[in-house]
Amino acid sequence: MAKSNAVWGIDIGQCALKALRCTLDADGESVITDTYDYIEYPKILSQPEADPEELVREALEQFLSRNDVVGDSVAISVPGQAGLSRFFKPPPVDAKTLPDIVKYEVKQQIPFPIEDVIWDWQQMGGTIVDGRTVDAEVGLFAMKRDAVLRALRPFDEADVEVDIIQLSPLAIFNVVCNDILDEIPNKEDFDPESPPESLVVMSMGTDTTDLIVSNGIKLWLRNIPIGGNHFTKQLSRELKLTQAKAEHLKRNARQAEDPKTVFKAMRPVFTDLVNEVQRSLTFFQSMDKTAQISKIVLLGNAAKLPGLRQFLNKQLQIDIAKVTTFENLQGTEVISQPSFKDNLLSFAPSYGLCLQGTGKAVMNTNLLPNEIVTERIIRAKKPWVLASVGILMVALMFSYFMTDTAWWKVDPRYQADNVSWQTAKQAIDRQNGISRKHKRDDDDLKIKLDKMNRLAAELVSSSEDKSSWTEIQSAIYQALPKDARLENLESVDPNEHSFEDRKELYLDHIETKYYKDVGEWLTTVKPIHDTMFESTQEEITALLKPIKQAAEEAAQQTATELNGPGWIIEIKAHHFHNSNQQVLKRNSDKTYLMKTLMTSLIDGTVEFPGNPDNVAGGGEYKFQDFGVYYPTLVTSSERSEQKINFQQDSIGRGNDESSSQDSDAPGNAPSGSTSDGDGNYVVWRYDFTVQMAWIPRSPRERMEAKTTREAAAANKTAGAEAEEDN
Question: How many structural domains is the chain composed of?
Fold first, then answer.
């Protein structure tokens, strides 16, 4: 009978029989479970008075009475201590010769006559370089033949055909790779010198604990002879209880009358378990010095022992991850069942078997004896042999006549629709030539596209890169004053909007210089920065007081003096905002500069495109969030007269006709831009140089700086309100 695509994963443990039925979805991508069963034995199989074969037979009969496995594949697991696991690294060899090396290693690694064992192997990791397998590791897994037949006996008696026999730790390894590890690198990308972090799985059974260490590529196994039953025996011995009462007390230790006494009685077993785990991990890391262990995952119903997770975390100093579901297993009807949830940790081997049976597993070794597989194949094919022979004879006769007919049709003398084979071949050659030309053109276009893509990648920075020069240019542009009347960027008649009334600054140049330590620049500039808000006129000093306070607050928010690498940006510019009216308003020369550009750089904001809630770094920021510090007016000139002639399309300072005036003297106020009749407009020009430090920050860094600044401001406001209340 043909097998369906459904798989039963059956795990016969020491305490219970666990079974899970899984199939693939319509797309063949996801594993879905539709049925499960959990049958607990009346006694633990390892108890002296228990009959293991009878208990397993009864549990299997009960399982088959409630579930139909006919037509489904069946995969079973055997305990890890019943098998043998060995790992070795073959030398770089041709991939075709690797099986021969494995056969040689089997004879060296397995301490039993080869005819007395069932074994299988699988390559783990490794890449193909020049036809040779490099950096590979091979896992050898074996069981004694009589142990395999003993595991199959209950199923043979129940007339159930087993398709897969797998070691329980390897079934759990499939679950780890499919559902627990966050990301498994490709074999081609795996670097043995810098492997990904490894995960430790402790699958706690009734009598033993399987320790599995893996990063998804490499695997290491060890069986620890301590399980949940050892805690029960310890309680029974220390507190003089029966086995049943001790088991009940172990499972409900926190609800006991005296929990402290219960945990104290179990502490020796806790200690022995931790010592064995520490010894095993130390041995593992001595073999693989590049391995880094990130966390431990507990599986098996014994892992639910109260206090175990906390004790392991405290003693091992490794995070203990909690498994509450199998991430990639679908099937709400099963997953939502209370009994499945309660025993979820014990279903890992069954789930791993289902993954292997549905073709979604990493480890695909099978310890089913070859003679059984061969016998099944022969038995399945017997009914078809005679029919095949008869069909073959008919086919041979039919083939003879068809071949003869086909041969004639390819004879050079044969024509179809008045077209000979020669004419057809010439037409094909022409089309092949056209095809080859199109392919060459396509290859050329692909090369050009690749160049364009690389250029685009260089021009567009990642969200985690440092701030780009495009962003600093945008920030400087946003800091400049803008006259709303001139935003349409069209030509403006100076008779309608005179130069001295335009709210604009004119940039002469922007230069940058890299410093290995910007502290060198700050040492020179800081005295100028601290005095640039002062003026010989008290009225101007008063006007600049708010700007000075903002600059002092910005300096205070810089926790330490600037140091380390960065850029010094120098802006050399001028403005004509120096009419008589602006001078009287104290809004010309240096004062106008301080109230516009310098205020924006010290206390203003800059906005970047993008979502402010993600790492793209969009939104509104202070200039110091962006990495701009200590904007300083380092030099300035007294305003001077200048003539602008639009007819000559030139701008220059007057020579004999221009003169320098004292910008702080009201009596020498400029006359404003007036035309002298020759197309010359006479204006007053004020030149200045501004420098500032820029330490580029990534979008993530400037978001963090903004958050820190806003939090400090909120704390300061709250403190001020508290003082007012007091």
Answer: 3
**Chain-centre distance of CA 534, in angstroms?**
54
3-state SS assignment for residue 123: strand
Residues pairing with 211 in the sheet: 202, 222
Q: Which domain, by its residues, includes 219?
A: 7-368
Same domain, 450 and 479: no
By DSSP bridging, strand 137-144 and strand 117-124 are: antiparallel
Cβ-count burial 352-388 (b if 16+ within 10 Å, e if not): bbbbbbbebbbbebbbbbeebeeeeeeeeeeeeeeee
- Give bridge partners of residue 209 from the DSSP assignment: 204, 224
Q: What is the sign of the dihedral through the CA atoms of 623, 624, 626 and 628? A: positive
Report the distance separating Cα 629 and Cα 639, nearest Å.
28
Judge whether 385 lies within some domain.
no
Backbone angles phi, psi at 132, to 5 degrees: -115, 145
Distance from C-alpha of 605 to C-alpha of 554, rounded to nearest angstrom? 13
Measure the CA–CA gap between 598 and 607, rounded to whole angstroms.
17
Q: Tell me the pairing of strands 640-645 and 680-694.
A: antiparallel
Residues of the chain predicted below pLDDT 70 = 1-2, 188, 408-415, 456-467, 487-491, 557-561, 611-617, 646-679, 726
3-state SS string for 194-239 = CCCCEEEEEEECCCCEEEEEECCCCEEEEEECCCHHHHHHHHHHHH
CB 434 within 8 A of CB 441: no
Q: How far is CA 311 from CA 20, 107, 225, 307, 321, in A?
A: 32, 42, 19, 6, 13
Q: Helices then strands (H, E): number in the chain?
A: 22, 28
pTM: 0.54
Cα Dmax for the chain: 123
pLDDT for residue 667: 35
pLDDT at 163: 92
Q: Is 188 left (phi over 0), alpha (psi -120 to 50) or beta?
A: alpha
* Residue 364 and residue 485 in one domain: no
